[in-house]
Amino acid sequence: MKRYSGRLTDFLHFAVILALLLSIPINSGVAYGQDKGMESAEELCILGVRCLGNGRYEEAIQYFKKSIEKRADLPEAHTGLGVAYEKLGRYKEAIESHRQAILIKPDYAMAHYNLGVAYGNLGRFQEAVEASRKAIIIKRDFAEAHTSLGVAYERLGHYKEAIESHKQAILIKPDFAIAHYNLGVAYLKAKEKKMAVEQHRILKTLDQQLASKLLAMISTEGKEKTVIYDLKVWIGSVIFALGVAGLIWWIRNLFRSPLMQAMFFSKHPILNFIIVIILVIIGLWVHSEFTMIPLIGLFAGILIGWRISRSKRR
Residue 265 phi/psi, 5° resolution? Predict the structure, then answer.
């Protein structure tokens, strides 16, 4: 299974690092009391978060582990450890760390969100959906959790739900570039190219790199008329032409005597009519694009049907 976009993970983890720095409680009695001269669990946790921000993930792991040794019930240390594991691709260990944070603090939205990202990186998208939903239930205005939920939905093929999740993230944070990018991707997967182009237009004012990346996807999407697609078009056109030819043949024979002359099945004129109508409908459905090719099929069908019906005249 594909992993979450590295760009998405980096951006969201930056938000995690900032949130951790703002949320870690500092107990001054512990930090500066009888243990003076030694780092407290909270201080070690903050050092771990700073290492995360600087890309020193192995060092961050060591700080978080030391923090947990001093104070096992510090949820920020556990989920910080989980983020460090994620950055190193150790997703199973990350999941265990985030779960531990949730055991300590069940209403910890950040830990639920991080758990969802870790599940997503392992391709466990249904579990990612459930974890992201829990984060949103706890914190309704958690824009990162909304767009993470949208990514999980998109990977499951639930494009309508993905679009709504990304829209919600943008409603909370209108200039949230990664949410606009993800919304554009979801629109492309849902075959709504015009809407994806609109997200590209917005992204150009927010993040040029993401805008270029989305534009490349839009351009690729426009070139995906592969051999299979072309084959589908031609097969549909041929079936459509045969249906039109049969219909012309059937109509011309209505005005002949005897009526059943030159029928496909001499005793079943109604069945013949149903068959040719079905051929016309199937041809249009297989083709699915009303362009010059079905128009050519229409004229070819009329010509062939007229020609064949004339050849049966006695």
Answer: -125, 110
**What are the residues whose beta carbons fall under 8 Å from the beta carbon of 49, sequence distance 6 or more?**
17, 20, 21, 24, 60, 76, 80
Stated length of the chain: 314
Query: Which tokens is 237 given?
Result: 């056109």
Dist. CA 145–CA 125, nearest whole Å? 14
Q: pTM of this prediction? A: 0.64
Peptide bond into 258 cis (omega under 30): yes
Residue 170 tokens, joined: 């943008």
Domains in the chain, CATH or no CATH each: 6-222 (1.25.40.10), 227-309 (no CATH)
Cβ distance 98 to 114 under 8 Å? yes
pLDDT tens per residue, range 59-113: 999 999 999 999 999 999 999 999 999 999 999 999 999 999 999 999 999 999 9
Report the chain's terminal Cα–Cα distance, integer Å.
Answer: 66
Cβ distance 121 to 129 under 8 Å?
no
pLDDT band at residue 220 under the 50/70/90 scheme? confident
